[in-house]
Amino acid sequence: MRIISGLYKGRRITAPKKLPVRPTTDMAKEALFNILNNTYYFDDISVLDLFAGIGSISYEFASRGTTNITCVDQELGCTKFISETAQAFEMPLQVIKSDVFKFLEQTTMKATIIFADPPYAFPVEAFSKIPQLVFQNDLLEDDGLLIVEHSKHTDLSDLEHYNYSKSYGGNMFSFFNKPETETAE
């Protein structure tokens, strides 16, 4: 895996083979960040990376100037690897070892971008729990986005707050956001 852009562009990160992860492909990452680059100034946002795995998405945000990044994963090997990599690169990542669903039920942390990359084998019911908890607990800032990565064989378009999806090879990103509130005239 490599960091695509920013301060750490081109740096390769090799995770131990024993970790149960499926990092986002470089092609999909590049496409995702091209979308985000047109909407956000990376140094002005906060990011919550759920099912963070080896931290691929978090490193990309940090490389582009984001300083408020929280990574959540329940796998000790993953959280340890992210912490060690962040320290080696001097990246400002906060790493939390927790079950993502329990974390979402208990946290009051708000973020501009919440990125979730759960196991592709999750049933749709488990996928649907992510936006449900994010919006029920008001964890997304008003101008924020929830992005859920999943297989192209999983359809999340019927979920509440769904906006659109983009497909890159076998990867798909579904985007969710708060409905815009109407202002009184």
UniProtKB/TrEMBL annotation:
Domain of life the protein comes from: Bacteria
Q: Does the keyword Oxidoreductase apply?
A: no
Cited Gene3D superfamilies: Vaccinia Virus protein VP39 (3.40.50.150)
* Keywords, sorted A to Z: Methyltransferase, Transferase
- Gene Ontology MF terms: methyltransferase activity; nucleic acid binding
What name does UniProt use for this protein? 16S rRNA (Guanine(966)-N(2))-methyltransferase RsmD
Pfam families for this protein: Cons_hypoth95
- GO BP, one annotated term: rRNA methylation
